[in-house]
Amino acid sequence: MLKMASKKGVIVTAIILAAITGASFLLWIIPQDYETTFVVTDYEEYLDGVKNIHEVLEESTDIEYRNLQTGEISPQEYITITEVTSSQVTAQISEFITSKPPEQWQPSYINYMEALKKFNSYIGETKVLANLIENDGSSEEKDRIIEKIESLKKESKEFVRISDDLRP
Fold first, then answer.
1. How far is 18 from 102, CA to CA, in rounded Å?
2. CA-CA distance, 83 to 57, in Å (whole number)?
3. What does the pLDDT read at residue 10?
4. How many helices and strands in the chain, by DSSP H and E?
């Protein structure tokens, strides 16, 4: 029964990530003759939307990370899932770079972009852990990586808090 739940969780996560990926890459699909610029007119609403996407990605990553740790999914399944998530985060960072917020929004946007970068680093380190699990890495190596994972997650959350505090 656990295998069924695990596969269902992987499928649901993949569907959510595919939907988010499709929406994020819509800008790249539409042909343009000019340099790509992401036009934002409501900076608060845009930042709230990015924050919502980030929360969904974070929650799905946390679920799959726990599944990896409990053995409900294989390290390779986990790595596949996180590669999609990482590409989503990278797309969000790219949108931030091209959104060109006004001066009063820049500190909040910069800190949220840093939060996304830390989250992407967090995902990368969980993939390192998955590889250690798959290759029977030492407990010391795993503990060191887990400590780094927890630190990156805290840093990401701190940048989100700072971003929220700096909103105009």
1. 31
2. 12
3. 65
4. 6, 0
Q: Please name the residue that has the structure tokens 């940048």.
A: 159
Give the Cα separation of 115 and 117 in Å (integer): 5
CA distance linking residue 6 with residue 119, whole number of Å: 24
Report whether 53 contacts 20 (CB < 8 A): yes
Cα dihedral 92, 46, 100, 103 in deg (nearest 10): -130
Measured between alpha carbons, how far is 74 from 88 in angstroms, rounded to an integer? 22
The tally of CA atoms less than 13 A away on the side-chain side of residue 65 is 21
pTM confidence score: 0.75
Q: Which tokens go with 22?
A: 């499709």
For tokens 């009063």, what's the residue? 104
| pLDDT score, position 100 | 82
